[in-house]
Amino acid sequence: MTTALVYDPIFMEHRVPKGHPERPQRMEMSIGYLKALKWLERPGLVQLAPRAASIDELATVHERDYIQEIAELSQQAAETEATSGLPTSLQLGTDTYVSSKTYEAALKAAGAPLTALDAIMNGEIKNAYCLVRPPGHHAVAEAGFGFCIFNNVAVAARYALDHYGLERVMIIDYDVHHGNGTQETFYEDPRVLYFSVHQAPFFPGTGESDERGEGAGEGTTINIPLPAGSGYEIYEPIFRQVLAPAADRFNPQLILVSAGYDAHWKEAEGHTGVQPGMRISTAGFAKLNEIIIKLADNLCDGKLIMVQEGGYDLDVVASGVATSLNQLLGGDEAVDKYGQAPDIEYQINTDVIISELRRIHQLTGYRMRNQARPDREKLLNEVKGPVITKTPASEPTEADSDSCCQNEE
């Protein structure tokens, strides 16, 4: 089985003002890394051009008036450019912009995981990486913000449920920001398990651990808000002791990943501006990906689609893309320019965090289905404690008698 890279040059045509962190160079650098490594020609990799998501497919997540608004803003930007001869970006929200090609790019960004899912369900590929922009996990039904236009992962999950009739889809989001839009979309839907690990307090302010879903969806939202300074030493046990058993219990038929690399330690020096920021390295992301890939292999025959979200240091995002794609192809090498995170001067009590999370999400005592069970018959026949070897009794010596008498005195 093969891995697909789903990408289109149109993603670089979504323009933002100069200095904006979600810039076209994120795609350019990522493709540049893959070319330099000669990984675009690797055996087992196919490149797929994404189709545009249809209006009806977008409307399973977004209001039709909002979809039309993006189309009209893109047209307005194109007309302004034609008149002025200058690139134009129109402000959609506080930090989100629409240019002449944004609508086309956003349609294909939402269509990329649909293209991947079609190929997976048709038996053509095993898994996929969707290298897309604009990103999506902040976009809600009626609006886009946080750099996001359409919620690409949410549209894909709905497509899996509605078009292919899947009953259980899991979304894993390790972007440094909580995916408020994805959570809101499926907050009352028991068919989608949304798992987010993110920095808190931080933008957009949602994602507390007690936000667990409502109605029929209660319990299918799992939020892991972590303090700044959290690194792999905290993420890894959370993935093994919270994510893994939650996934095992839910038993998904498909796993989607909102792959944002802005929890990388280098991002705190640039985009986030928060010190110490999060402390994941590219090698750390690789080990977390390894856990996810194994879960997909064990639970849903490897059906896994990773979709690009954040990551704004150009080398960080390009390294993350290359490393993730390599892992989907079966490799274990991390492309890591910056190395490990600097140490911090304090420790975070991981045991307390995990214990509380397992309590909140009713995972205490949960046994993974593939966890080896003890051989009770063998254990019953084992000797408890050290084995004492008995030696034949011997006649006491004069020294022994003297010692005995001395003790009695």
Automatic annotation (TrEMBL):
Alphabetized Gene3D superfamilies for the sequence: Histone deacetylase domain (3.40.800.20)
GO terms (BP aspect): epigenetic regulation of gene expression
Positions of region (Disordered): 374-409
Pfam families: Hist_deacetyl
Molecular function terms, GO-annotated: histone deacetylase activity
UniProt superkingdom: Bacteria
Stated family: Belongs to the histone deacetylase family.
Protein name, per record: Histone deacetylase
Species this chain originates from: Dictyobacter kobayashii
Lineage of the species this protein comes from: Bacteria, Bacillati, Chloroflexota, Ktedonobacteria, Ktedonobacterales
